[in-house]
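User: Teach me something about this protein's shape.
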Amino acid sequence: MGWRPTVHAAGDAAVAEVLDSYERANAIKPIAGKRWAIEHAHISNADLVERMKKLNVMLSVQDHLYLAAPVLKRYWGAGRASEVTPLKNYLKAGLVVAGGTDAPVIPFNPFWELYHFASRDTISDGVYGADQRILSRQQLLRLVTINYARLIGEEKTKGSIETGKLADFAVLSDDFLTVDVSHMRDMHALATFVGGKEVYSDPTFK
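Assistant: First, the predicted structure itself:
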């Protein structure tokens, strides 16, 4: 079992099937700590979250609801659409959740995703599932930094600014920890550094 699978599953039935398979594999050889993951996990419930927790399953989530709320409401109904990506429930359970973009399926702007998870607002249909808002800016930052590094097994060299790690970082247009939620989606990088070398610079950045 040297493979580290990340299986695509959107609805709760699909998530249950993935967990069935993971549990069968776990019965042969424990997978906890092996960083097995589920991609998306849009719809879930308390039982599925508990099963994920027992296996230490990681999650990779995105902001599909932000962009496609009316479509998801048409597919699943308003109630279930409001439950898409119950991030607060996942974090409360202690799961390691990484935030990604799913590009090129949806735009790669990470600030749209962070805005959505902070507000649960959508581009064209208002707020869905306000009870799942993430108020902690530190938690939001970890989604797209250290948690993603953990998901891919590179947290010793990436994901945070620490001595001994690669100097991969961005200088942002605003202070993410204090910017008003309503302006979060408009943030952008003024400069980007990879391995300590500047690879992008906004013309306005000095």
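Now, about its shape. The first helix runs from residue 12 to 28. The first strand starts at residue 6 and ends at 9. If you'd like, I can walk through any region in more detail.
User: That's plenty for now, thanks!
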